[in-house]
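Why do we bother with holo predictions? Because pocket geometry can differ from the apo form. Keep that in mind while you read this record for zinc ion.
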Amino acid sequence: MTYKVSSENYMFSFSKDIKPVLCVKSGDRVEIETMDCFANQIMTNEDKLETLDWNRVNPATGPIYVEGAQPADALKVTIEKIQIGNRGVVATGKDLGVLGHLMEGLYSRVLDIKDGEVIFNEDISFPINTMIGVIGVAPKEGSINCGTPGSHGGNMDTKLITEGSVLYLPVFVEGALFGLGDLHAAMGDGEIGVSGVEVAGSVTVKLEVVKNMSIANPIVKTSDITATIASAPTLEEAVTTATQDMANLLKQHTSMSVEEIATLMSAVGNLQFSQVVDPEKTVRFAMPNRILERYNIL
Ligand code: CA
Ligand code: ZN
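The structure, written out:
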């Protein structure tokens, strides 16, 4: 079955207390329409960040209840298609992002997206590199706003989460309560200025329950690599968790010693920044699929 959910079904947090907008079976597809991270409040260069309603930022579309999903399962999300609009917004400003101390006030600009390119200024355009910033499930307890990443996913701003990728999310509550939003026409690792090229659009995903696949944090698989994703208040903590999660994955599926695992990961694995600007920082540890597939991992 293929369903459609419009961006009018938005939420500003992931929580088990939010009523699902759709109920699907494992294996169903959903085309999910999303607003951009400013809830489409910046449409022209005259719309300023200063007058933005900050209670309406980072909407995600959802939640979607997936039948049969139980705590200690994983939700496998296959990202089949991402379509984006023809207008993107970039933003930064004082105290925002890594260079925020160099700026005064807030800055935003609307960019045209044409023929697969983002027109940045009169001199430069660059190819789109679409990705999903916010994607996740409800946490075990309470509610986590869509601007914050965590074990439940959320605002991971990880550019590997793109068309063709498969994302595994831990399930914490019955039905998983999945949602996504915050599409980027392009974003670099780190998202150093605090935004990507923020854009509205739609994403077609296939949602499947993987029974008894107990993972602590999200894992993403592209055509080449598989990465454990971790978010924490500091980069150091996120580095340790992402690295340990990958080591655990290898430990569960192989007979290698921790020394063998550490030397293998040190030789062929890559620690990568996802984003360094959100309330929690996100990093990932990437291993070549060629190595993991040898042990039938994912
Ligand atoms: Ca984001
Ligand atoms: Zn964004």
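The chain has two domains: 2-212, 220-295.
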